[in-house]
Amino acid sequence: MAHAVATPTLAVKTRRMSPTDNLIDWVSAEKPLVMQRLGQGLVGLGEALRWEFQGPDRFAEASAAWAALVDNAHIDNPVGIPGSGLVCFGAFTFADQSSHTSVIIVPAVVIGVMGDTSFRTDITLHDAAGQGPVARSSRPRSLAPLDWQPGLLGEADYRAAVSRTIERLQEGEADKVVLAREMVATAPGSKDWRAALEKLSDSYPDCVTFAIDGLLGSTPETLAKVHENSLSLRVLAGSIRRGENPSEDRTLAQELVTSAKDNDEHRFAVENVLASLSTLSVHVAADEQPSTIKLANVWHLGTDIEATLPDGCTSLDVVAALHPSAAVAGSPTAAALSLIAEMEPFDRGRYAGPVGWMDERGDGEWSIALRCAQWSHDGHITAYAGAGIVDESDPERELLETRLKFRPILQAFGDD
Fold first, then answer.
1. Domain 2-132+146-412 has CATH 3.60.120.10
2. What is the DSSP letter of 25?
3. Is the separation of the CB atoms in 159 and 166 below 8 Å?
4. pLDDT value at position 140?
5. Which tens digits make up the pLDDT trace of 330-364?
6. 349: which strand partners?
7. Which one of 83, 335, 362, 392 is least enclosed by Cβ atoms within 10 Å?
C-alpha cells in the first residue's frame, strides 16, 4: 500500500560545481542521505518529496510514481551524466509482508561526483524558492562504544536454527537458505552518526557506503547498475575470513575456491540471478568461474554479470525482477522465504533489501543492504548479519561467519 503518492510539479536545476574531494564531508548530521564508493556517488540534503510503500506491489507502485513525477517535472540539466537532474534515493524492505515501510526520498539538494565531474542539483516545488547556498557539514563527533546485545536470536539459538535448517535441506525442502540474526544497542543521546559513515567509508573503500532514512552500512554487493540500457552486477556468495599474515591469507583464499560447500552456495546464487534476468533480457553474459573478491575482513566468491536491457526498462524494474536474490534469501526462492519466516523470529525490515538511487533517465545504482544497521528516532539500533546455509553447512562455522559480517558495522559504531 502506498501512502500519499501524489504527483507534484518539481523544478530541477543541475549545474557543475568545483571539485569536491570527500563526499562524506557534505552529509547531513541530522538526516544523512548518501550512496558513495571510492569518492564517487551522491549526497542528498533535505527532502523535497518523500513517499512510503508497503506490500508485494511496493516496487511497481514506486516505479509508477517515479515515472509520473519525471513526466511532470521541469528539468534543467545541461550536465546530463548519471545521477544528475531529477534523482531519488530508495530503501526497500526485504519481505513482502514486512511491517516496515519502503521509502523513496527526493532530496532538496544533491551533491554529486561522477567521474571527473562534480555537480549540484536543486529540486523544489515548481515556483518555490530554492535552498540557497549549502556548506560542508561540521566535523562529526566521535562515537562512544555501544553496548551491543543479542537480539531475538542469540548465538546458541542461531546454531540451533542452522541445525534445523540443515535437516530440512537434507530432506529436500530447498537447496539453500540464508539465515540472519540481529544485535541491538541503545544510544538515546546520539543523533549524529556521520562518524560511523566516515569510518565505514575509510575502512571499506571498495564497498558502497550508504545512509538512507536511518539505515546505514557498507555493502560489498551490487544488485544492479544500469546506464543507457546496459546492466552490470556482481553476485557474492560463499565467504571465508582473511588471514593473519600473507601466507595464511593465500591459504584461506585457496580453501574458499576449492570448497564444495561455498561453490554450491555460490552456484545457487548465480543461477537464481540468471533465471531472473531471463525475464528481462535475452542478452546476458556471466563469468564462467567465480573469482575471489578481497575485502578488509573476508574473502568472497564473486561472479560478474552483464546484460543489455530493452528500451524503457529502468534500474528499479531490474531491482524488482532480481529481489530477493538467492544470495540473501536462498533457492528456490519461495521455499527459502518460507524457511526464513519459520526460523527467524524477527522482521528483517530493510536489511537485505535494495538500497540505491535512480535518476530521471531510469539509470541508477542499487545495492543490497548488507553489513548494516537501522536506527530509530528513539535511539534504538539494530544490526544484522546472515550466512548462506546448504546441506553441507556446519552450524559453528556459519555462526563464525555472522560474527565476521557484524564486525564492520559494530566497529563503525565505536566498538574496537
1. yes
2. G
3. no
4. 59
5. 989 999 999 999 999 999 999 999 999 999 999 99
6. none
7. 392
How far, CA to CA in Å, does 114 sit from each of 34, 41, 186, 201, 316?
14, 6, 36, 17, 20
Cell of 135: 556548506
The string of DSSP letters for 244-259 reads SSHHHHHHHHHHHHT-
Q: What angle do CA 24, 360, 37 make, to 5 degrees?
A: 25
Are 401 and 159 contacting, i.e. CB atoms less than 8 angstroms apart? no
Asked if 309 and 281 count as a contact pair (C-beta separation under 8 A), the reply is yes
Distance from C-alpha of 94 to C-alpha of 178, rounded to nearest angstrom: 12
105-124 average pLDDT score: 95
Q: Could you tell me the three cell numbers for 227? A: 546506464
How do residues 62-113 score in pLDDT, each as one tens digit? 999 999 999 999 999 999 899 999 999 999 999 999 999 999 999 999 999 9
Distinct helix (H) and strand (E) counts, the chain: 8, 24
Question: ∠ CA(57), CA(61), CA(67), 5° rounding?
Answer: 150
Contact call for residues 4 and 51 (beta carbons, < 8 A): yes
Cα distance between residue 203 and residue 408, in whole Å: 8
DSSP string, 123-186: EEETT--------PPPPPPPPPPP--EE-SS-HHHHHHHHHHHHHHHHTTS-SEEEEEEEEEEE
Catalytic annotation, residues: 176, 221
d(CA 360, CA 112): 15
Domain boundaries, the chain: 2-132+146-412
Give the number of other Cβ atoms within 10 Å of residue 311's Cβ.
Answer: 5
Q: Is the peptide bond before 56 cis (omega within 30 degrees of 0)?
A: no
